[in-house]
Amino acid sequence: MITQENLLVHELIGLDATVLKSNNKQIVGISGKIIDETKSMFSLDTKNGIKKIPKQNTEWKFTFDKNESIINGNLLVKRPHERLGGKA
Hints:
Elements: E1 16-22, E2 31-37, E3 41-46, E4 49-54, E5 58-64, E6 67-72, H1 80-83
Antiparallel strand pairs: 1-2, 1-5, 2-3, 3-4, 5-6
């Protein structure tokens, strides 16, 4: 079960995500469902198609089970299998 405490070491694919802050002002406000994750990017399925958004220098809001969590993307810059399972 995803909680705010274990979000960093949990599978993020399938969660709703929104870019709250970024050095790139053009991506602020983009939201959608995470459909893929690499070391440095999320692929979001948005209302305007699939968008690839960098994790680094971006603040993210994740929505899950009627909860929200705000995470600095720099904490997520790892390969998914390195982040999963408590290796945060």
